[in-house]
Amino acid sequence: MTSEHSSALRALVGNVVQQTPVYDVHTHLYDPAFGDLLLWGIDELLTYHYLIAEGFRWFDMPEAKFWTLKKTEQAEAIWNALFIDHSPLSEACRGVLTTLNRLGFDVKKRDLPALRQHYSKWSSGDFINKSLELANVRKVCMTNSPFDDVERPVWERDFDRDPRFTAALRIDPLLVDWENSVPKLRTWGYAVHADFSELTFSEVRRFLGDWTRRIDAQYCMVSLGADFRFPDNSAAAQLIEHAIMPHGREHNQAFALMIGVRRNANPLLRLAGDSLGQADVGAVERLCEAFPDNKFLCTMLARENQHALCVAARKFRNLHVFGCWWFMNNPSLIEEITRMRIELIGLSVTPQHSDCRVLDQLIYKWDHSRPIIAKVLADKYCDLAATGWEPSRAEIERDVHGLLGGALESFLAR
Ligand code: HDL
Ligand code: ZN
User: What pLDDT, on the 0 to 100 scale, is given for residue 324?
Assistant: First the structure.
């Protein structure tokens, strides 16, 4: 293969990846109807919990003092520590600057008040359109919890949905805090018992069905600790087997497992205080084997779990692997696991999701991931071309659409 041929193919792949709109399959963004729950703007960008964790590494103030500050004061503390006093080289810092630069702001002036001034010109509606356009994101999936006391009443009021914001039914408290979820479910009219007696499992299924219909959930989702085991006599394992699995079959709804978090490793950092642990990929394999008529999505938090998770996906076609989640969402690791995934499971994977908590982050999360995905893909297509197999533009466009959310949409619809 000549170097000109290779360069042309690499340019084509990069162009297609850049131009293909994304379905972002996991975010913490909200439909505009949720008002202030949809975070955006410079102070939200700077107080992203990733930056709070990084900021504390330089702060002298006690953690408790930081939490008494106003959001603008927190943002200024982070701006000074991570951008002014030290070059903003981390992925989360760079992300803020990528976003500001793409929004047309002049970051070299290092002028935070001026940046706030720029943002004040935007209405939320216009800013949503601008962010989705700049990020080239066609649709995002939210994280929607019936256990969130601020979010739940909005759903109960009903509202006209923005079709660009799909919903996912997030049920962590049900599985990881069953004891305390029982009284809540009973308050909401579901006759459940902590010991799973009587109609508990069918009532949990009714709860899942009610919320699936209410929010039009694309999938059901839970974040589980590194200690998750299956089979097991834990409440989580019992509820998965006797409620979530039959619910998933009844509604043709996938169950998304995000495994490996260690919540509150440092509680002083609040949302920024979670850490990770190495999980048991075998638990995922045993779930896929025990429930062949259910569909599973899975992403894991530990780098050490990524290879085994890919192999698990090779074994079970009802398992769809997605994303470079949280501590995995850094250029060096994104490249490493995207290369490994394509080499092991080809295009039957969703390499990335943004996990955005702030709308503007869509711009940097995808600006940073697209070139990495394109680089890996270009290498793989060049390897193909070297065998004489010439990928057409149409084939590359088909493949990239699949990787950027299309394959997951097909998996969910199957
Ligand atoms: O549990 C999750 O969905 C995680 O993504 C957490 O929300 C985490 O705090 C996060 O934002 N990671 O990117
Ligand atoms: Zn998340």
Answer: 98
Ligand 1 proximity of 327 Cβ (cutoff 6 Å): no
DSSP 351-399: ------SBTTHHHHHHHHHHHHHHHHHHHHHHHHHTTT----HHHHHHH
- Sort strands 275-276 and 254-262 into parallel, antiparallel or unpaired: antiparallel
- Domain 3-39+136-413, CATH: 3.20.20.140
Is pLDDT above 90 for 2?
Answer: no
Contacts of residue 408, Cβ cutoff 8 Å, sequence gap at least 6: 23, 25, 297, 320, 322, 350
38 Rama sector, left if φ>0, alpha if ψ -120 to 50, beta otherwise: beta
Distance 361 CA to ligand 2 centre (A): 13
**Across 75-142, where does the E strand assignment appear?**
137-141
pTM reported for the whole predicted model: 0.98
CB 147 within 8 Å of CB 181: yes
Interval between CA 284 and ligand 1 midpoint (Å): 20
Nearest residue by C-alpha to atom 8 in ligand 1: 326
What is the spatial distance between Cα 228 and Cα 223, in angstroms, rounded to a whole number? Answer: 10
CB 326 near ligand 1, within 6 Å: yes
For 87-143, the pLDDT digits (tens) are 999 999 999 999 999 999 999 999 999 999 999 999 999 999 999 999 999 999 999
Task: Identify the residue whose C-alpha is closest to ligand 1 atom 5.
Answer: 355
Tens of pLDDT along 346-359?
Answer: 999 999 999 999 99
Q: Quick check: 248 pLDDT over 90? A: yes
Ligand 1 pocket: which of 28, 39, 259, 354 to mutate (most atoms within 8 A of CB): 28
Taking the mean position of all CA atoms in its chain, how far away is CA 152? 21
Cα–Cα distance for residue pair 257/272, rounded to 1 Å? 21
Q: Which atom of ligand 1 is nearest to the CA of 223?
A: 1
Q: 1 pLDDT exceeds 90?
A: no
Decide if 360 contacts 40 (C-beta within 8 A): yes
User: Does the Cβ of 139 fall within 6 Å of ligand 1?
Assistant: no
